[in-house]
Amino acid sequence: MAFRTPRDFGKGPVWKNILAQALPLTVAQAVLLLYNVVDRIYIGHMGENGAMALTGLGLTFPVVTIVMAFAALFGMGGVPLFSIARGEGDDKKAGRILGNACFALLCSAAAVTVLCLVFCKPLLFAFGATEASYAYAGPYLQIYLFGAVFSMLATGLNGYINAQGFPAVGMVSVIIGAVCNIALDPVCIFALHLGVRGAALATVVSQAVSAAWVLRFLCAKRPPVRLTGKNMKPDGQILKDIAKLGTSNFIMQGTACLVQVACNTTLQRFGGDLYVGVMTVLSSVREVFTLAVTGMVSGALPVISYNYGAKQFDRVKQGIRFNTLAGAAYTLVAWLLVVLFPHVWVSIFTDDPAMIDMGSAMLRIYFFGFVFMALQFAGQSTFQALGDAKRAIFFSLLRKAVIVVPLTLLLPLTALGVKGVFWAEPVSNFLGGTACFVTMYLTRYRKLGEEE
């Protein structure tokens, strides 16, 4: 039934609606995680070149993050507006939002692909590459960029499937691509002896399959709001509104790119290629443990937006409370698992003894106070769901651009040395997460319904 009948977000217990959305989305996030990290697992176990190849792969993360930032700008930026319009009963407007989001994704994909291909080598060296690591980073990135349009369409449009109450379909769109990637990776990397080029090729093919699935569903008759050529006609006001709200998502991804660049260049300066590789592993472990939180946030966002559009403010508050408490409980458990078993998580991604020992020590630092990330996610997602673009943008900038990047650059100059790079993350989680959640509670949660 999940494939055929959309869920009505205005009826039934709010927490059940959120879980009905979040569980398949979390499964999708878990599969997507495999999609993203399976390359790193295979590459990290390529033998004597594995550690350097993993370092090279880590250097491509900022560019990949830029691609995903544009997918978030026009994809996730339109989802709350789309859900609010549906909650108001205006499916015609929702259709125009969907069509304009697709148009913007196609245009931005073309621009990003061309620019990144032209400046591939200088970008990677600016991000901390050496001649040794570029030998792996360059070939991977060049092939990946040719499939950027598929990645942006699959990621950017999948939210509009979930927002219409078809989370199982959205889950399958991710699973299809992930299964393809997992199956193709060993073939392309080892059987065809393509190495990192094979990993990139497998990713491109897999993303193309996912994009085809998403487009096929949105253009079919099943969803209440379909993607049509007519709705893709550019509308300046709609594009402006999407970009305005999506800017917070763009900044979150864009500042993540900035953080990655700051980390890689600082680690290269104070520690060398080994520490850049360690950060690649730690970032991968972090993705493992944030997937459930992002799944919960993705599930809650359309439910909260729909009820806000329908002016059911008590249901909106219920959604915010559940989102916050569930996220806090999960991140607390995740923090304990990392502290108790750091070697287990690091060894998943590498068999290099030096990287395992160093990574295990740094992992405990990097994850310190991980529970405060739940506050950041809860506050940020609420601002987005309620269409509060200004605060969503501000807190996107605060945690990473204002706190993480300066700390990443300054702390290594103190007695902490290279460890300071890893301390920047937990400090920012505490300061940024607390500030975001408290502001959301005082300015939006407590006043819900008053202005209306």
Description of the structure:
- The protein is mainly α and 452 residues long.
- The protein has one domain (14-445).
- The protein contains 18 helices and no strands.
- 58% of the residues are buried.
Count of DSSP H/I helices: 18
Overall body shape: globular
Radius of gyration: 21 Å
Q: Strand tally, please?
A: 0
Query: Which class best fits the helix and strand makeup?
Result: mainly alpha
H and E order: HHHHHHHHHHHHHHHHHH
Largest sheet properties = none
Estimate percent helicity.
over 70%
Ends distance:
36 Å
**Count of structural domains:** 1
Average pLDDT, to the nearest integer?
88
- Point out poorly predicted stretches: none
Fraction in beta strands = under 5%
Write the layout of secondary structure elements.
Blueprint: H1 14-44, H2 50-59, H3 61-76, H4 79-87, H5 91-118, H6 120-126, H7 131-146, H8 148-162, H9 167-191, H10 196-219, H11 236-270, H12 273-309, H13 313-340, H14 342-347, H15 353-366, H16 372-385, H17 389-410, H18 419-445
